[in-house]
Amino acid sequence: METYMLTQYLLAENSCLSQVDSEVMKRKHGHGKRGAGGQQLRVDLSACKYELFRIVAERLGWQIVPLGSTDWDLYWTDTSICQQRLLKLSPTQRINHFHGMLELCRKRAMARSLSALAAAAAPLGISYDFCPYTWQLPGQMTAFLAAAKAAGKKATFIVKPDAGCQGKGIKLVKGGSEDKLLKSLADIAATQAVAQQYVAKPLLVNGLKFDLRVYVLVADVDPLRVYIFKEGLVRFCTAPYKKPTSTNIDCAYMHLTNYAVNKHNTEAYVAAHASGYGSTQAVGAAGQECNVEAASKWTFKQLKHHLDSQGHSWSALWGSIGELIVKSLIAVAPHLAATYRSTVVNNISAASQPSAVDSSSTGSGTKCASAATVAAAGCRCFEVLGYDVLLDDQLKPWLLEVNHSPSFNIDSPLDRTVKEQLIMDAVKLVSGCLMHFNRDPMHAPQGHGAQLLETCSQIAS
Hints:
alpha+beta; 461 residues
């Protein structure tokens, strides 16, 4: 049976979001061919450390080109890209990052973009209250200290390095005394970071705090075209949750949901033994078999089953998460679109123009690629983002951060089940555009979505 694993979100009239099933994401093997000639899709993985991509390449019959080759169709890198690399793209090549995406994936930049659009969107009646209130440090340190003092010692804040990952450098601090707070922040006083209000009442499962790793494919930025993977990872803390106090505030296993942190709690971490799709076993710290509900990672399917059993609506939650994702991308859409046009579309269009000598010798039949023609051929860039979303006890989703290079390690069969299908579906969609150069027509966003984009464009200019 054909299964659709990605959900496409488009901006539509009379609503901020419209959800439609993608009809191009059918799971079919052997989609690695490049058209009638039967040539293999050529991929460059020289800058990719993850074995999962080589597994997918073998499964789908792709050709991995040797190091240094420029004869590739698809390039996957674990790091962000510079404009110079984009300038070298040919019209038939795709790369897995957009230049400028760090405007969303750096914490200070994300806070700046979201707060600016939130203020501008308020008169439109559109709420941007899905991100905890954030101060950008060190520039807003004075304002943060004043807010923390006013909130009192019962208030908790979480401080994160701007470009940090895997839970490194994160700390929780209490409000109240300015002197004590400055002492707590002494080691990051000159570091670029953010301070956020801590969500002190998270939704718990079996007494544990957790977050969601939601995978998002940005297939285009002009216009914005977003797909959200229907499956994902639920990542649990490994110590029972209690509201932050002076005695437990430093317990990372209780407050931080990062897998890179909790896997080191060897006495409590429970690895998923199988995919989680009907499996009933997990492996505890001592190697003993446990019920799968005790695993420190779940799939969305497992969480949906749990929430359904508690009388909650997964579909309503999923809709709220989708809205959160698209609104966050709208905040940086004008920047991404402008950067893409200037570095990719205009460059490829200019490179295809004939020289003065060629123009005189080729006659009136010469056809040069216009920017519009180049754009219509398909987006040269795409990006798989990892959204970290926390649920509070009212099932309200909160955006914690966005990862521009989410981990594709496969430390368990569950990881492989989720991530392998994610990569297969995402790259099939991108390579499908690459092979056929056709796309479903996209209508200009209307209603609230159009207002948001127009407002954001004004802010960007």
